[in-house]
Amino acid sequence: MPIGKFSRRQFIGAAAAATGTALVPETLQATPLQDPVVDTLQKNGESVGYEKVPWKVRPFPLKQVRLGGGPCKVAMEADRRYLHSLPPNRLLHTFRINAGIPSSAQPLGGWEAPDCELRGHYAGGHYLSAAALMYASTGDEELKKNADTVVAELAQCQDALRSGYLSAFPMEFFDRLRNREKVWAPFYTIHKIMAGNLDMYVHCGNEHALNVAEKMAGWVAGYTGPLSYDHMQRVLGTEFGGMGEVLCNLYAVTGKSHYLEVAQSFDKKLFLDPLAEHRDELKGLHVNTHIPQVIAAARYYELSGDRRHRESAEYFWDEVVGERSYCTGGTSNHESWNTDPGKLAGELSTNTTECCCAYNMMKLTRHLFGWSPNARLMDYYERTLFNHRLGTINPEDGTMMYYLPLASGYWKTFGKPFDSLWCCTGTGSEEYAKLTDTIYFHDDDSLYVNLYIDSQLEWPEKGLSIRQETRFPEEQGSTLTISARNPAQLRINLRIPYWAQKGSVKINGAALPVFASPGSYLTLTRVWKSGDKIELDLPMELHIDSMPDDETVQAVMYGPLVLAARFDAVSKEMTYGDYEPKASQQYKVPEIVADPTKPTAWVERDAKQPLLFHGIEQSQPLTLVPLNEVIHERYAVYWNVNKKTV
């Protein structure tokens, strides 16, 4: 398969086998991952779910993994500073007003403004989820204290409203929804608030928050219960977020089966049935309305064993990743899928790849990996993390983007700290708080090293501590050092990415005689002792990612990194505010002339800086860097490439 083709064939095909098996000193074996080998919702690290289909491999509790230096740490700390900048009284203002409780706080703006129909989605929802995840990831007690305050005050608002209802907008919005009158997305907001409180219980042990979430679920059941099936299906024509998922998760931590029954009322038949029957009817759909529904289907499968929901989730992932995703791993244009599968060359705009979509596709990927750990899933996850997610937070102040434009000649626009608070601000606040959650997975006898990110893993059940030291992606590889109370037998599965066409591994300085093919796991089986060291070398190369329907529209990649040409800087006014640049402000970038037999020959790596590149023999000088390093400049990712004539 072509090195750089981000194609259905690459990600949907079976994982490549390793190149061989060998016995090396101290009974070490190096083999391909054979039989793919679970995660329930966890409270304080303990599994408390009611899973019918538990994950075959599980992530570690966030508190057992800590980030070291590198781009993920930079993003997490920027997010943490941003979360600390949000005063609880301002977050609570519209909730208090709606509950008839006096508030003199300055209102937030944007999507949290007192006249916005989505108010409360961030202040009472995403914020709590992000704070809970950040506490679990860093132990930040001050942030937990602020979030506990918000939970306690939200509970007072809920008591004042009675009936279990909690929102920053009046219940009349739900009357409009029932009557199919125009209203933005009231259940979407309710989901965020329920999920935020549930996360405060799961990650912070806040029992009060669980009580708030359960009362809200009782109100939801009272609303949906009297509606006929057909009426409820019409209600689901309005975006409703992850209502099915949060109700499933509430069942998973309480065992109260009626929550699972209410979750089923949020199954939209018109959308899920074609997926279960392997039909792509995604054209024309609003993307982030529907990805959360697939996550809910995945969660329902885990709790009920309903195989049809798994079919829907797996087929959906295949179609979106293989047919509707760009080089960054992102999907959507103007928030929708506008074309037939594989038709993307005409879909480059200022509004490509909404950030919420990337966040939710990564969530879905974790479910599929838990069911069956395949390297292709983590290849996609890595691509999306390093290009889209790390590329859409401003490391200077923690502000976040709505869209990541992929039309050439535009720039990145970040939200205003207190006056944007978009849906993507919310998902970003969560994402950058949990950047440790997928680096490592495990089963009872194996460790999966999925991502090469500087980090420390504590595995007390095994008496093991693993330090991963890397400057990846500047460094082309990683080193893992084992600390063990006692010698321990363990399989360590190292992901060999699709882009690693060469590579090698050493144990305690001795090179192994075998490796694994790109897009697979290399399994190292050994009795590990303190001081054992694994050195993994993963050389990166330049490669091309072409549009599936027009091979002359190309992006250049280096390993997992999308490269962007960097042009002139933009003003502060252009950096903050609107969702996206305007079409009239586009900078015309040059077309590229390249030899079709050597498609990357027009780009060369800088001799002194590992992630700096230069264009060769083009109409103007070009400097290229990883897309995630571009913050305040115009840029180009996709190029129109003409054949070089001899």
What's the average pLDDT?
Answer: 92
Q: Which class best fits the helix and strand makeup?
A: alpha+beta
**What is the CATH first-level class name of the domain at 16-35 and 439-537?**
Mainly Beta
Helix content: 25-40%
Describe the structure.
This protein has 646 residues and is an alpha+beta fold. Among the domains are: 16-35 and 439-537, Immunoglobulin-like (Sandwich), CATH 2.60.40; 542-643, no CATH class. Helices cover 35% and strands 18% of the residues. Strands 17, 18, 19, 20, 21, 22, 23, 24 and 25 form a 9-stranded mixed sheet that branches. The protein has a 7-stranded mixed sheet with strand order 1-2-15-12-8-7-5. A 7-stranded antiparallel sheet has the order 6-9-10-11-16-13-14, with no helix packed on it. A hairpin with a 2-residue loop joins strand 18 (550-558) and strand 19. The longest helix is centred in the first third of the chain and has 21 residues, at 141-161. It is globular and about 70 Å long.
Quick structural summary:
Helix content is 35%, strand content 18%. With 646 residues, the chain is an alpha+beta fold. The strands form four sheets. Strands 17, 18, 19, 20, 21, 22, 23, 24 and 25 form a nine-stranded mixed sheet that branches. It has a seven-stranded mixed sheet with strand order 1-2-15-12-8-7-5. A seven-stranded antiparallel sheet has the order 6-9-10-11-16-13-14, with no helix packed on it.
Q: Which terms would index this structure?
A:
646 residues; alpha+beta; nine-stranded mixed sheet
